[in-house]
Specification:
Strand order of the largest sheet: 7-6-8-9
Order of helices and strands: HEHEHEEHEHEHHEHEHE
Strand content: 5-15%
Largest sheet: 4 strands, parallel
Number of helices: 9
Distance between the termini: 37 Å
Number of strands: 9
Radius of gyration: 20 Å
Shape: globular
Length: 239
């Protein structure tokens, strides 16, 4: 709705959101719907939501996130790692927090106009990417390993209803479980995609060999039928 209002006044505008939280019942974010219909630009924050956003990204979306947050101005590894990590998670731009500040909020420029220490490390890596590496990677396409992970907004609400979002209980926390699953797959060097009900019903499970249901407590009849067809045709289900 807001996008339509903005576009009516500024047709060339890229409309997006920032400061997005990890999956929960209170943000109202259904990343499948947002990435398919509403957003031309996204500056999501960290965690497993980045993989959700990457999985559902439409071609042409300006996708980035904020780097920085080095309050002590001493983390060379973080400054050099950040741009590469962004690029390799499907981003085609960088936001930096913050360009200039009279506080300790990670400025690239100090109030006297001089560069902070991590600014030099950061700019060296960005220059290397802009010299050609980034363009080559952005022109490529992700090759997944045949692993689909079920993305189920109803199951997020189901987990909330039964108390599986308590931050004090990491063993029974939906968000922690989902994040850890993504971390395990990544550290095993597997490229995976999240898959939404609409994609499953449309037959897109046939593009995968394995389907993982991470605490998927609310599965529709249409999803169940798609999963059964997937298994009967030789697919592996991990629930």
């Amino acid at each position: 709705w807001l996008r339509d209002i903005i576009k009516a006044q500024i047709p060339q505008a890229r409309v997006g959101i920032s400061g997005t939280p990890r999956p929960n019942s209170y943000s109202g974010h259904d990343w499948w719907q947002l990435m398919q219909e509403a957003l031309d630009h996204l500056s999501g924050y960290g965690g497993i939501q980045r993989e959700l956003q990457r999985s559902f990204l439409r071609p042409g979306t300006f996708y980035s996130t904020f780097l920085g947050y080095d309050y002590k101005d001493n983390s060379e590894q973080r400054a050099r790692y950040g741009p590469w990590d962004l690029l390799l998670h499907g981003a085609n731009g960088i936001n930096y927090y913050t360009l200039m500040s009279n506080t300790l909020n990670c400025p690239l420029l100090r109030p006297d106009g001089s560069f902070s220490r991590h600014a030099r490390w950061f700019f060296e890596e960005v220059a290397q990417l802009r010299a050609g590496t980034a363009g080559e990677i952005m022109l490529g396409r992700y090759a997944h390993d045949g692993i689909a992970v079920h993305y189920s907004p109803p199951s997020v609400h189901g987990a909330t209803a039964v108390g599986l979002f308590d931050p004090r209980d990491r063993l029974r926390n939906y968000q922690t479980n989902l994040t850890n699953l993504g971390t395990i797959l990544q550290e095993c060097h597997y490229q995976y995609d999240f898959i939404h009900q609409d994609q499953m019903v449309a037959g897109e499970l046939q593009n995968y060999r394995v389907l993982i249901l991470p605490w998927s407590s609310c599965v529709s009849a249409a999803e169940a039928e798609a999963i059964e067809r997937f298994v009967r045709s030789g697919g592996i289900l991990v629930a």
